[in-house]
Amino acid sequence: MSLSSSTRTPSQGARAAGRSAGGSSTRLPGSRERRPALAALAVILILLGAAGSALIALNSGNRSDFVAISQDSLPPGHKLEAKDLSRGDLAGATGGLIPWSEASKYLGHYTTTWLYKDQFVTPKNLTVDDKPPIPAGGALVGVSLEAGRAPSDGLNVGDIVSVIRVPTANQDGGSPVTLVKAAMVTSSAGAITDARTSANSSLNVTILIPADQISTVSAAAAAKSLTVAKLPAGTPTDVSRNGGSN
Questions:
Q1: Beta strand residue intervals within 85-237, DSSP E
Q2: What does the alpha-carbon distance between residue 158 and residue 231 come to, in Å, rounded to a whole number?
Q3: How far apart are CA 220 and CA 213, in angstroms?
Q4: 3-state SS assignment for residue 119
Q5: What are the tens digits of pLDDT across the range 125-139?
Q6: Among 200, 73, 72, residue whose Cα is nearest residue 145
Q7: How far is it between the farthest Cα atoms of the chain?
Q8: CA separation (Å) from 181 to 85, 148, 231?
Q9: CA angle 40, 43, 46 (to 5 degrees)
Q10: pLDDT value for 51
Q11: Would you say the pTM of this structure is higher than 0.85?
Q12: Does the N-terminal or the C-terminal CB of the chain have fewer CB atoms within 10 Å?
């Protein structure tokens, strides 16, 4: 007896059935399936573009005019003239800038800092009145003050302070000495306490003092033995802004 075997190739249908039974196949979505997603993306992009255009138009409509500098630079102590100013427009957060409508109020005032072309101006960049920042017999001295050596709420331009030298830790038995009875603050920057971290910081002020006190005040400031006390507004200063002493 003889046995015979035959080899037959599985049909295409059988192969397909085997694949279906053994596992699933992965295929990419067809072009028809991708079209709705692309259409939705296009709509989203159109809406975003429209929103951006509306926001730009809204901000453009809220622009206002402010005082800016027209000269290449203005040094501290410069008397402000109309030719020094130009009109600049801004939108958004513009708090503290001088509106163009109030520019004439500051003509004749003096600059307290360097100012440069196209820079917008704040009241702190100028003296509070039309008196020169350094009158005859006076001097401007910069002082850096730490916690406990100035009011915790800071000092502003125009404040009147008493300048006092206090004994340091290695000066036992020493007594405080008033160096300037009443000095005007002409500029102020920084703070005793950092507003973001609440850590101790430095308050940097410039004060108008008698010229004969430059050495003593500067030495006390460098030795960190200087304190200032805020006096009532209107207190007569040791150096008058009109020149000379009170």
A1: 85-90, 115-116, 138-145, 160-165, 177-190, 203-210, 226-231
A2: 11
A3: 11
A4: coil
A5: 998 888 777 888 899
A6: 200
A7: 142
A8: 37, 19, 10
A9: 155
A10: 73
A11: no
A12: N
